[in-house]
Amino acid sequence: MNDISNRQPAPPTLLSDAELRLLQMLVYDQCGMHFDEKRTHYLQDRLQKRMRACRTVSFYNYYQLLTSHEGKREMAALLENLAVNETSFFRNKAQCDLFHKVVMEELLQRKQGGRDRSLRVWSAGCSTGQEPYTIAMLMCDALSYHCLRHPSTTPLPTPKPLVPPPWKIEVLASDISYSVLRTAQEGVYSESQMDSVDFAYRLRYFDKVGDKYAIKKALKEVVRFDFHNLKTEFLPQGNDVIFCRNVMIYFDQAEQKRLVEKFYRCLNPGGYLFIGHAETLFGISEKFRLIHHNNGTAYQRMEEQL
Ligand SMILES: C[S@@+](CC[C@H](N)C(=O)[O-])C[C@H]1O[C@@H](n2cnc3c(N)ncnc32)[C@H](O)[C@@H]1O
């Protein structure tokens, strides 16, 4: 008699075209990621990995699991496996400069005269946290410089807080993957991940822990992590700036249009949208104006004329 208890499941066979289309549609429906013919191999590879983890060789059984109520966790695991999480600190230096020197300057000036001194930036598709922490560092630096030029008339507590009242800064950082959100929340990075962080930033915003760099508590308090699937209708409102870089590149044009329309509604009037350097709003939306500074570009929400 054969002992089947230790037997590994046979490697799953390649999907038929019909099965592939079914899976593509399901993934697209769930998160907007679009797998065209060029990315079929990647989709097959990741699917097989998940099927092995679930110890199933039948695509039919796996598909049934994904679409069942009990399959929610597996769906999340599949989407995590399909997402590309590549990121880095100060990614696209020219865009960081535009944000720091032009956009922050304009927002701080605009708010200086009013009663609302809060700034809210959303990093949509934040991966392992380098983007939202970069944004937080740039915001805190810009605010410090602004406060030097516009000193507060009321005495500040000592030691001086990173974000001096009445100013408030919030960076909301979201992703569809729980595992990258956990890493981001931890905020601990290796030497190689710190390549693009210069020494002034390391000294001001990081603690050295063994051979790693940990984000300082005060900066961490500026960033709030949350799960958001950009495919859904209900997304965080009231943002002065949205960063959604290198995410839309995985969506098709129809989904990009829907997402940019949602971003328009999620931005405050005159708010800014930063997208990846390989992404564009050309042919996607006419509700934004392109702004640039040196080689950095972003989009500003235009108000509808009544
Ligand atoms: C290539 S990373 C970009 C990270 C960062 N924005 C940057 O430019 O360095 C793309 C991220 O988008 C996330 N993502 C993909 N589809 C998403 C969706 N539907 N909702 C939310 N996040 C999504 C992925 O999990 C991944 O972490």
Descriptive report:
The protein is an alpha/beta fold. Helices cover about 40% and strands about 20% of the residues. The protein contains ten helices and ten strands. The chain has a seven-stranded mixed β-sheet. S-adenosylmethionine binds next to loops.
Which distinct ligands sit in these coordinates?
Answer: S-adenosylmethionine
Strands, count: 10
Percentage of residues in helical conformation: 40-55%
Order of SSEs, N→C? Answer: HHHHHEHEHEHEEHEEHEEE
What kind of sheet is the major sheet? 7 strands, mixed
The strand order across the widest sheet is 6-2-1-7-8-10-9
Give the radius of gyration. Answer: 22 Å
Give the overall pLDDT as a whole number: 93
End-to-end distance: 81 Å
* SS strand fraction: 15-25%
**Which spans have pLDDT < 50 for at least 5 consecutive residues?**
1-5
* Structure class: alpha/beta
Counting DSSP H or I runs of 4 or more residues, the number of helices is: 10
- Per the principal axes of the C-alpha atoms, what is the gross shape? globular
